[in-house]
Design the sequence.
């Protein structure tokens, strides 16, 4: 976990300053949801929690969404309804049996209307030590004030990986694709003579394939921003548009390679695998 929200929660937990309710504004709700689950494992796990504890029963129940003391509420139709909150309150009348906390997660907190938010207020105004709640939204401005004012607010904005790819790797990726698409030289030799001299760190290899993925995807979906393209890129998009099935195959292959790079595939195997399978 390298997200801001997770670290802030973890920090306040260790400082013993955990709030009873959090409003989390995030640009990727599902990702943040998973991080909340990790955090709930951290504060409930009876063993000393290791990241991704899967050995204890409690963490397993959280992972499989089958812990009675953890309730996630999604909007029912266009709103989160009062009845849903009443039911939550009923479930949390007693102290939890297996876990330290009774926990609730409200997805799309902006869908709480005046009546469901009012029903919610008891949790927020008379907080009990064993209850903790999370409200997720992609825009806190749309969350009703009575909720917002009673929560600790945390913000998360996951950046796109593309923003981190260095400029020279983009150039390298474009050169590489040009080589492959025009087949001027033997691609295996190109890997050995050109790429292996420039891509020495696994991270760079990861960026290289990310950049290639981005280029192929943009070509495939026809979302090239023409204004910013140099002539070479235009030639490339012209070339690639000729065979969309072939591009799609390359996209799938790159996704697979990126996945394997996360495990144990080394740089030269990744590069060779790409050119060999592209050749088929
Ligand atoms: Zn555990």
Sequence:
């Amino acid at each position: 976990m390298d997200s801001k929200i997770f670290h802030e929660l973890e920090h306040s937990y260790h400082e013993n300053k955990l709030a009873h309710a959090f409003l989390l504004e995030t640009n990727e709700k599902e990702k943040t949801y998973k991080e909340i689950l990790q955090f709930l494992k951290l504060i409930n796990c009876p063993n000393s929690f290791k990241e991704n504890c899967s050995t204890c029963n409690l963490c397993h129940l959280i992972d499989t969404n089958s812990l009675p003391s953890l309730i996630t509420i999604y909007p029912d139709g266009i709103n989160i309804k009062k009845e849903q909150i009443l039911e939550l309150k009923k479930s949390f009348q007693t102290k939890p049996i297996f876990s330290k906390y009774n926990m609730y997660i409200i997805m799309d907190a902006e869908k709480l209307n005046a009546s469901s938010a009012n029903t919610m207020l008891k949790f927020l105004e008379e907080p009990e030590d064993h209850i903790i709640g999370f409200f997720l939204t992609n825009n806190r401005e749309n969350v009703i004030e009575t909720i917002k004012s009673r929560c600790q607010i945390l913000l998360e904005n996951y950046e796109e990986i593309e923003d981190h790819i260095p400029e020279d790797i983009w150039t390298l990726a474009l050169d590489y694709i040009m080589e492959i698409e025009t087949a001027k030289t033997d691609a295996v030799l190109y890997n050995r003579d050109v790429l292996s001299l420039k891509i020495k760190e696994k991270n760079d290899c990861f960026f290289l394939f990310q950049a290639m993925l981005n280029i192929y995807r943009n070509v495939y979906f026809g979302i090239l921003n023409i204004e910013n393209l140099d002539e070479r890129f235009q030639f490339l998009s012209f070339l690639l548009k000729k065979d969309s099935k072939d591009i799609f195959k390359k996209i799938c292959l790159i996704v697979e390679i990126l996945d394997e790079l996360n495990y144990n595939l080394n740089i030269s195997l990744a590069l060779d695998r790409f050119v060999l399978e592209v050749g088929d």
